[in-house]
Amino acid sequence: MIDAGHGGKDSGTRGVMSKEKDIALEIALELGDIIKEYLPDVEVIYTRTDDKFIELDERSNIANKNGADLFVSIHCNAVDYSDKVHGTETWIMGLHKSETNLNVAKRENSVILMEDNYEEKYEGFDPNDPASHILFSLYQNAYLANSLKLAEKVEYQFDKRVGRHSRGVKQAGFVVLFKSSMPSVLIETGFLSNPKEERYLNDELGQTYIASGIFRAVRDYKVEIESMN
């Protein structure tokens, strides 16, 4: 399951010249094409293939209905305090260890405020309440080990093969991951608040490098899991 973050009325974070929703979609489609070519036995499913708004719980619903073995959500990062911060991060569900981690989860989870009846649908979840994120982080425990395996492989590829600055694997409570019944990761491919990184993320070759890194991580994860069975 490849999930291009945001879409439609939800642009995600913005840089000077681009929007997160557009970059996430380009990388997601490129990743899908590479998997189809080099792992033909793997079925690729997308949450979206165009610029449309999809509610967070529907993204995991699509994955669950299709019996997906992996959920890979693609995003771009941003901070408002510096234009020098750069690099990749791969997130899994878990307790946020710092205010910074909480703030990333808050930003990604705030999308639900655009949805109708979100309080009822998400059982009283409040994206501005730290306690809500802690509660969400307790889900997905059954898939934590394998989520971590994939996340570590993604960051290894970014660091060693793609030549990106890896900021590591991190944990926080993300709405888009919590209902997915499979190992799940959320990949922040870079910072749109950094002009140099924004140019890279908008470059076709840069997007291909990122997609290729994620592909190799998925491929290596697949080999490892299948060797255990």
Topology overview:
Layout: E1 2-4, H1 20-38, H2 56-65, E2 71-77, E3 88-93, H3 99-109, H4 118-121, H5 130-137, H6 144-162, E4 166-172, H7 175-178, E5 184-191, H8 195-202, H9 204-228
Parallel strand pairs: 1-2, 2-5, 3-4
Antiparallel strand pairs: 3-5
What do these coordinates show?
This protein is of the alpha/beta class. It has 9 helices and 5 strands; from the N terminus they run βααββααααβαβαα. The protein has helices spanning 20-38, 56-65, 99-109, 118-121, 130-137, 144-162, 175-178, 195-202, 204-228; strands spanning 2-4, 71-77, 88-93, 166-172, 184-191. It has a 5-stranded mixed β-sheet, with helices on both faces. Helix 1 packs across helix 9 (204-228) and helix 6 (144-162) crosses helix 9 (204-228). The radius of gyration is 16 Å and the shape is globular. The relative contact order is 0.22.
- Percent of residues in helices comes to 40-55%
Strand order of the largest sheet: 1-2-5-3-4
- Give the number of DSSP strands: 5
Strand percentage lies at 5-15%
Tell me about the largest β-sheet: 5 strands, mixed
Low-pLDDT stretches are: none
Structural class category: alpha/beta
Shape from CA axes? globular
What value does the average pLDDT take?
Answer: 90
Radius of gyration: 16 Å
DSSP summary: helix tally? 9
Q: In sequence order, what are the helices and strands, one letter per element?
A: EHHEEHHHHEHEHH
Distance N terminus to C terminus?
21 Å
